[in-house]
Amino acid sequence: MAKPKRPPEYRKNGYSDSDFRDILNEIEGYVDQQVSIRAKAAGECGGLAKKIKNAKATAKALGIPLSVLGASLKTRKLERQMKAIADEIPEDLVEVWLDAAGQFSFFAPADGETEPTPASAAASQRVDEAKAHHEAEQAEGAAVLDELAGAVH
Asked: What is the pLDDT of residues 86-128, one digit of tens each?
């Protein structure tokens, strides 16, 4: 059974009308700022779209096939994404990921092929970076120990 509503004269609120009005005005000001920022960003993006179109027209005039240019742009974007994925793998798991990237990649090489997959290439690079970081930490630790050993004598 629904609870009967109280008449307006019995309803209580814990805020003042001026506080409510102030919050409304504050939020509306923020919304206006959002609209302004979006309009400015849309204008800038439109300008960049024109620049991209002009660059592609220049490429076409130079004899560069636009399909190859587009494919190269997409490939580079994917490579940056693969690098970002690799950078997220903790250093102690990069070799596990390298193994998995080689085995379970969509582009896994056929039996007997040795061509690295995009994922395994990113994983190999991450392994190398992790090893270099580990070696740098080891060298730093050894330098500190050598310094401490010199201070003891």
From this structure: 889 898 888 888 888 777 777 666 666 666 777 777 778 888 8
Residue 85 lies in a domain: yes
Tens-place pLDDT, residues 83-93:
898 889 898 88
Q: Distance (Å, rounded) from C-alpha 136 to C-alpha 130?
A: 10
Indicate the number of domains in the chain.
Answer: 1
Query: Which residue's entry shows tokens 């070696």?
Result: 135
DSSP 116: P
pTM score, two decimals? 0.56
Residue 27 lies in a domain: no
Q: Are 69 and 59 in contact (CB under 8 A)?
A: yes
The answer to whether the CB of 136 falls within 8 A of the CB of 144 is: no
